[in-house]
Amino acid sequence: VRAGIRSTIQWQQLGMEVVAECEDGQEALDAFNQLRPEIVITDIRMPVMDGLELARRLKEIDSQVQIIFLTCYEEFSYAREAIRLDIADYIVKPTMTVDDMTKVLIRLKETLEKEKAELGKLDVLKKKLEEEEVNQRKSLFFNLIRGELTEAQLEDAVSKLHIDSNSGNFALIIWSVDRYKEVAKKYNDKSLSMLLNAMHSIV
């Protein structure tokens, strides 16, 4: 079955590659830990570690991994456990065709791409929020230096920026980057901004 799946599926056309083939569940688990594939195709009945136990272990390591079960008719009793483990799909081996497997793989690829896009949006939003907090902290400190904040405004700003105002006395630190113009030439605008934000965070 493994040889058939490897040789008949048009992996390159799907934008995929086979990174490992394993003879039992333990070998598959070891390969997963090393290679971290996004899709795993596994039989239910295997020596050493069966497919259900393998699926449980894989989900513990990476809850987003997409698992396809290959099953026989008499193994349908495992379907309830497969659903509990959030298995992506299962294919019946005696009637399995190249088209069946290809359709499942295409669907899982689309699912993975959608999840990555959503994660990318969250990362962008998180970065914007972090940059906004840095800018707000800068504004707070500049206003403090200029004496432009009332006590109520200061308390409100400290609360919103999660600054621990009960930790004792505060000290004002004024710092600058030596040879800033020379340093700035080595970075593009985005990298320079990240560098300065990191330095502000350290201070």
Compact overview of the structure:
This protein has helices at residues 2-8, 11-14, 25-35, 51-61, 79-84, 98-146, 151-160, 180-185, 189-202, and strands at residues 39-43, 66-71, 89-92. It is mainly α.
Strand content: 5-15%
Q: What helical percentage do the residues reach?
A: 55-70%
Radius of gyration: 27 Å
Low-confidence stretches: none
How would you spell out the order of helices and strands? HHHEHEHEHHHH
Strands, count: 3
Calculate the mean pLDDT score and round it.
Answer: 83
Q: How would you characterize the largest beta sheet?
A: 3 strands, parallel
Structural class: mainly alpha
Structural notes for this entry:
The protein has 203 residues and is mostly helical. The chain is built from 9 helices and 3 strands; from the N terminus they run αααβαβαβαααα. The protein has helices spanning 2-8, 11-14, 25-35, 51-61, 79-84, 98-146, 151-160, 180-185, 189-202; strands at residues 39-43, 66-71, 89-92. A 3-stranded parallel beta sheet has the order 1-2-3, with helices on one face. α3 (25-35) packs parallel to α4.
